[in-house]
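Quick question about two entries, pasted in order.
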Amino acid sequence: MALTTHVSQLDKTQTPYKIDPDQTLRASQALLKHVKAEVQKLQESGQKKNLLAAGDSDDEDEADDAQPIWLNLATKQYLTDKHRLKPSKIPVPHSLNTNENATICLITTDPQRAVKNAVADPAFPSALSTRITRIIGLSKLLARYKSFEQRRQLVSEHDIFLADDRIISRLPKLLGKVFYKGTAKRPIPINLAPKESNKEKSKKIPKEERQAAVASPAVVAKEIEKALACVPVTLSPGYNIAVRVGLDSFTPEQLRENATAAAGAIIEKHVVSGWKNVKSIHIKSPTSVALPVWLAEDLWSEKPKAALVETAGVDGASPDAETEPGNKRKRKVNATRGPQIGERKKARLAEERAKEKEDAAARKARLSAQKASAFQAD
């Protein structure tokens, strides 16, 4: 039975700009059921489970037994006109970093000693400090990891990479496609700078001292824990955002809560015009079809109500006046400029607007019929 047949028809009474929790739960149940069935089928055939793992990175050493669940959000208009080098963090109720043995690499500003002292401080949680296996400054990162193979080795040695947000925009050029071609090992920004009081802000502190300043051990630990509990979102030119919101080990309720929270935060933070600019929201695994959790009633943005600009006729005749003997100018009867067109222009514009409304109504009717047949229950 096809996976899409497990998802019943959308509730027609739901609010247009709100995710239906029942629909999201049904999609989560169907998706997780499909993932488990696929894993069991591969295990019975003697294949390894990690063949299903997300292949968004060329790193051969990257092994993750947990299969990710993605949230795909499509918009009607462009999200941004350029790549955002600094990813944003979206908090979710259930963290994806559930492995307590996952190692962490911290990339910091220079000098790195201040961060090392903060992590080694007794006030820093010991359970978290044991997971931080390397703290490396920006200058040492540049000096020690110049070649492609050295960066591949760095990627394979750690599970999670965190970076000071003061240098996060410089890392793509330094780390290269080993880190940034996929999304699994991209550094997540954390704020390690201390909070300055009004008196400190008024003082003229040298830039080097501000860059080297690090917050207290308790604040550093809190920032790291906050980053581990979030999902990173990187924007690029286009109409889609894809973000990991769950694992195949999640329950349907956990996946629903993460998907709902992530979608709402992404729309509020990154989508211009909010829900009105959202076309669809789906969830999927790397090997499944995308299951819908929300679809827009109108897939096209409303056209601005602006006056149509009149142009010259198709026969190439100029709309300007025709010069006659005696240097007297006489406008053509069918000219598209000037006060002589009067009511004729208004009538033509009214006809064009009425035709546009009829075309829009026809498109909506066809779309509604397509959606009703696509989401029809067994």
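Here is the second entry:
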Amino acid sequence: MSRPYAAARALGRHLLLLGLSVLIVAPFAWMITTSLKSFDKVHQPPYLVPEQFEWSNYPQALAAAPFAGYYLNSVVMAAGIVAGHLLLDTLAAYALARLRFPGRNAIFLGLVATMLVPTFLTVLPAFDLVIRFGWFNSYTALIVPRLADVFGIVVIRGYLLSLPMELDEAARIDGANRMQILFRILLPLSKPALVSVAVFSFLFAWNDFLWPLLVTSDDQYRTIQLGLAAFTSKYGPYPHYLMAGTVIAAVPAIAIFMYLQRSLVRGLAATAVKE
């Protein structure tokens, strides 16, 4: 392959990626710039560069709805779900990756098969249990039914399979038990996989709308996404306030993803191993 041809291919590939990046970033750019415009300038050019930055839109949007309470509820729910996934998914993944027992592969395949079941089919049974246990309108209803996740088990198991079994054998010779092997040796080496699970779990919890809508009816326990929906119904005719509220709701998820994206990619790439 000649150098000019290779350079042309590389240039075309980069231009294609640049175009796709613009398509993805443009809605976010429009959201941010709209949140910084006055009402009479929202539908006037220039659309992506405000003539004057109206920073007051943000405090006014915050004052229009109890966003502080919504944020707190989302943080509590997301923290509980992330902690549950990291603990329970890790224990399950360790058993499926490092222990030898009859039916291990069948159990794993059964877990993977549950990922093919639409979420909507499991919502009603889970909601019925929440009502029977008296958890409605509580943090327990937001967190406990989603403390474990098959996706996290698959990711962590795949990473553990990439670590040599000689680590376990050497630790057992030194007198370590299974929990010591897991928490002192394997988990420190599995940080990319744990970060991947934590990021996906946080994004799932932070952006979830259906489940909090079903199990809460009081503003005391409503999350940021439900608060934003209520805000939208009230301030829909005022797009500058609506976009300011949307930016406020999206900032934590975007910040965490950007900060941990390298570890996220490493963790997902390392799960593609053969047993």
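Reply: The domain at 60-269 is CATH 1.10.3720.10 (MetI-like fold). The radius of gyration is 23 Å. Hope that helps.
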